[in-house]
Structures are given as structure tokens and as C-alpha cells.
Amino acid sequence: MKTSKELRQLFLDFFSKRGHRIVSSSSLIPSDPSVLFTTAGMQQFKLYYLGEKSPYGKNVCSCQKCFRTSDIDEVGDGRHLTFLEMLGNFSFGGYFKKEAIEWAFEFLFKELKIPIERAYVTVFEGDKEVPPDQESIKIWKRLGISENKIKKSGRKDNFWGPTGKEGPCGPTTEIYIDGVEVWNLVFNEYYQDENGKLSLLPQKGVDTGMGLERLTMVVQNKSSVYETDLFESIIKEIGGSGAITREKGIIADHIKGAVFLIAEDIVPSNLERGYVLRRILRRAIRYGKLLNLPKFFLVPLAQRVIEIYQSVYPELKSKETEILTVIQAEEEKFEKVLSQGLKQFEKISQKGFLSGLEAFHLFDTYGFPLEMTQELAKEKNIKVDLKGFQEAFERHRQISRAGAEKKFGGIGKEATYQATKLHTATHLLHSALRKILGEHVRQMGSDITPARLRFDFSHPKKLTKEEIEKVEALVNEKIKEDLEVKREEMDYQEAIKSGALAFFKEKYPQRVTVYSIGDFSKEICAGPHVKKTSELGTFKIVKEESCGAGVRRIKAILE
Ligand code: SER
To answer: What is the reported pTM?
Structure first.
């Protein structure tokens, strides 16, 4: 029986022998700022479909790490996953339908010898805008797939893309085995703009994606992905009776997703990617409770994940300590409030519904992600007032903001200038932290009063005394160099391309202001800042502390 590892390699070798350059998986954090995670193999090649020259040649293949939140409610069914590996072959103006379909056919039914009787295919039936895909039908028939095994479907099932707000897309033909979609072949003929309008691409492209987990399940003749070697030891570690229940499946999936996200230096937080990570970790913890698993059960599960993947993704092993630390810290944090939160939920759900304020209270006081509250409510068949939650959330934000403004506002010129200096110092600190501790450091929050700056950032460990001294010294060195602070306006995309740091992306307009300090720091930021760094005086870190799992907080002043 072939292992998942063999299958991964067989796929890449197969396409490499057929003129494809093997390209490594890109990060789970895409460079396209309009998407949160990498969800498909084609993402790192998006521009090549649009005509930019590919440095790898026209035909490539890869095994891409993907993370999808879109299927999260189906996770546990044995087919859908948040983290998955996608095998894919791609062409940017090279080959098209004939080769793509023939190779897919050859790989599955000749190379892997999957009995063809187990398969059927689907093709695009056509609609007002896009004609039916007769060519694919012809090719399948010529390969011996009978008419009744070629099903036709519309936009919803047989059209793919774009990822993000705009991009390449096109009709698909999909291969199902034992009723499970295994391989999706996309024929990128179109470009969809931000308004949903389609136009023909200057060149045709192929983008295929086959989930390694599903392929392994089919080849290993298993009835769920959890029985394959990509999950077996995790499920076993969860323990209990032999049956693989939905709950076990969710825990196994989520811990795997969490390990891979943390390996990308994401830490749990209430924002964007950090929030997704928090959400899956906390959901896994809650299901662990339902199954009566012991406290801190996630750490040994994470170790199994690392064992399964370390030979393919060595970064998991080298980051093991960080990964386990972050997971344990989040478990500790949530453990403390979970039981009380659940009790509170029981109490307030008696009346048959949850108000927005109650859901917000569960979030704010007990750390229940909204989705968790919704799931709990669904189990009891009761409704949560979503709009009310959002209003409560917004009100809370405004109150905190008003508080900050009160501290900050109407305080005269001198105080404003102090705050401006601290703002510039914050940029220097951010850059210094990334240079000294590593590029995983990301801004998680910042707060400035005329008296001090406060900066929260992702980092798994307490800073050593030496590290603090080094950071301080580097900032002071840059102050002494009397660097010029430059303000420029540019398109968001251009800013990102030029390496400017941006962390709260969804709030950015298309045109943004970028502040650079010499060539030491470059950030998208609304300002204001000082003109020259020598205005700052002496920078001093007065406190370094933890502020949540995997997040550190620095307070600093200027003297
Ligand atoms: N982009 C398509 C998918 O994700 C095929 O690779 O399914």
C-alpha cells in the first residue's frame, strides 16, 4: 500500500518527467493582501496567469500547504479539512485541456492503478456568459469514460476562482472517486475584475488541485481521511473507543491546522489570522472537554502532528518548542475560563435565545469566539442575535477609543509633540525587534500617550536581558544617525511590493501613506512623525512582559 509520502513524491515526479518544474510550497500567508490564507496551489502563481513572466517556465507543479476556513463546519465528516496539502500541476500559456485531462487520467488510472469503475467526472454545462465545455467532454470520451459517467454542472460546481477580489478563473472538470471529489482541473480562460465582470485572458492557463489527504484515502482504500497515515496517530493519541467520531475528527483537524499556522509565526489573538488560530484551538479544547480528555491534551497531539510531517516540513521540528509553548499557553488561558463560560452559557440559554450583549459578554469575559457561541447555540437549537453582538462589539470599541482620546486629546502642543516622537520611536522599535529577534515579529497592538509608548508584538518567549539591551542600543544608534523620516503616498499594492510593513490590512484604502526612516524602517502609517530621528533623544525600554499567549508587550519612554 502506498504511503502519503510516496504519493506526494510520485505526483511531483510524474509531472517533473512531463516537463514541469517542481516549485516548493509557498507560505500559508499569501502575498496577496486581499486574502487571509493560502487556499490553493495557484495562488503563488496568480500573476503568471495574468501575463507576467514566470521565472520557473510555463509549466510547474507543487505540493502546496493550504488553510481553508470555508469548510470549517463540515470538518469531521472525513472529507473536509481546514489544513490540507494540495497537489497541483499548472500551466501559464503552455498546454491546455488535452494534456491536462490526459495526464490526470494517466496518473490516477495507470500510474496509481485506481480502478476506473470507481470514477466519474463532471464538466461545465455552460451559462449566459461562458459556453459549455464540449472539448473536455470529447477528451474524456476518447479516453474511454462513458457518457453516463460524465455529469454536467453549472457555475456553482464547475467554475473556479478567483481567489481574493479579482484574478484568473475558469470552467473546471472534476474527477470523483467513490463519490468524493479528488481532483479539480481548472481551465483559466477568464479574468474576473473586482465588480465580478469576466473578460478573456490574453493566454490560456491550467490550474489543477488534488487534495493529498483525499487521494491517500482513496488509494489506501479507507473510508475517511482520518484512517490514513496522515491522521492515524493523531486519532490514536486522542484515545477513547476505536470509533472515529466527528468530535475526534474536529480535534485532529484543528490541532493540525494550528501547528501549521503557528509554524508560520501566527499567534492566537483577536485579530485576523490570530483570531482564526484562536478559534480553532478553542474549538478543539471545547470538543476535548466534551470527550472528557485530560487538561492540556493538545500538546501531545501537536507532537504527533510534528512527527507525521517533520520529514516533509522540517520547519515544524525546528520550531517545535515555539509551537508547543504557544499551544500550551492558549490551552492554559482558555482552560481557566471555559468551564465558567459554559456554565454562564447554560444559564443564559435557558430562556431560549441569546442577546447580542450576552454573546459579547461570553466573548469579552470568557474568551468565547463568536463562532463557538453560535455553535453552542445551534446545538441547543436557539438563536444568537448577531446584529446585537456586532453593535455591542462596536460600542465597546468606541468606548475604548474615547478613553484613549481623552488621555490623548486636548493636551496642548508640547504633549502632542511628545506623542509624535514616541510614534516615530515605535517604528524604530518595531524594526529593531524584527532585526534582533527575527522576522516573525509582528505588530499586534500599539498605544501611545505623551508619556510612553506601548507596543505589543508576536514572539513566543520572554526577551532576555541581552536582547532588550540590543534592541534598545539599535534604536538609539538609529536615533544618533539622525535619519530622515520620509513620507510618500502610493498604491497599497505598490507599498506592499516595496516591502512596507502593514498589519491591519482590511482598513487600508487603495492609496496609502508610507513612512520610511532611512532604510531602516518602512511602514504603512497615517502619521504624524518627526522629521529627523535626532529629535527623539534617548530611547529606553522600561518594561517587557507577556500580554497573552505568544504576545509580548514593551513599554518604553524617551528621555
Ligand atoms: N485552484 C483550484 C482549487 O483550489 C484547483 O487547483 O481547487
So the answer is: 0.75
